[in-house]
Amino acid sequence: MALPPAGPVCDHRADMWTLAVSPLELVARSVAVYVIFVIALRLSGKRELGQVTIFDLALILLAANALQPAITGPDVSIPGAAIIVGTLFTLNRLVAAGRRRSSFIRQLLELPPRVIGKDGKWIPEALAREGLDDDDLSAALREHGLESPAEMRLAVLEHDGTLSIVPVEGGPIQLHTRRRRYRRRF
C-alpha cells in the first residue's frame, strides 16, 4: 500500500508559467524598488557612480540580492520575470528621457560638480564631503599627466563621478580617461 506524499504536491513546470501575483502588483513592486534604489544611489554621492571599486561592486551585488524578494514577492514565474524586466527597462528609459528633457529632473537625479582643488591646493572640506582620499587624488593627477597638485590650476569632481583637472600650464590638455560613446537615433 503506497502512502500519499506528505504536504502539497508542487509541479514546478506549471509554476514556472503561472503568475503567483497580479501583473499590476509586480509592476508596482518594481517601481517602488527602483525608486528606492535610485534614491540610495543619489544619496551615496558621486564617487560611487564614477569609480566602482571591488567593495562598490560587492555592495551593488548584495543590494540586488536583498532587493530581489521585494520585487518578486512570492512569484517565481517566467512571465513574472518578463514583467519585472520590462518594467525596469521602461523605467530606466523614462528616467533617461526625463533627465534629457527636464532640468528639474536632472537636478533631482544628478549632483552638481564640486570644485575640490584650486591653484595647486586641495580643498579639504570638499574632499571630506565627497569621500576622496590621497590615492584617488594622486591617481587623478597621474591620469591628467601631472606629478603634483602644484601643477593644477583647478580640479573638479564632475556630476558623473569623474575628476577633471585643468593644469597650470596653458598647453593642450590631454585626458587619459575612458571615452563614452552615445548612440544616436536617426
Outline of the structure:
The protein is α+β, with helices and mostly antiparallel strands.
- How large is the share of residues in beta strands? 5-15%
Helix content: 40-55%
In DSSP terms, counting alpha (H) and pi (I) runs of 4 or more, how many helices?
8
Give the number of domains: 2
Overall geometry: elongated
Structural category: alpha+beta
Roughly how many Å is the radius of gyration? 24 Å
Order of helices and strands: HHHHHHEEHHEE
Q: Which parts are unreliable, with pLDDT below 50 for 5 consecutive residues or more?
A: 177-186
Number of strand segments: 4
- Assembly annotation: single chain
Strand order of the largest sheet: 2-1-3-4
Give the integer mean of the pLDDT values.
82
Tell me the span between the first and last alpha carbons: 72 Å
Largest sheet report: 4 strands, antiparallel
Protein architecture, described:
This protein is of the alpha+beta class. The protein has 2 domains: 20-109, no CATH class; 114-167, bsu07140 like domains (CRO Repressor). Helix content is 53%, strand content 10%. The chain has 8 helices and 4 strands, in the order H-H-H-H-H-H-E-E-H-H-E-E. It has helices at residues 12-15, 23-44, 46-50, 54-72, 78-101, 103-109, 124-130, 134-143; strands at 114-118, 121-122, 152-157, 163-167. The protein has a 4-stranded antiparallel beta sheet. A hairpin with a 2-residue loop joins strand 1 and strand 2. The radius of gyration is 24 Å and the shape is elongated. The N and C termini lie far apart (72 Å). Mean pLDDT is 82; it is low at 177-186.
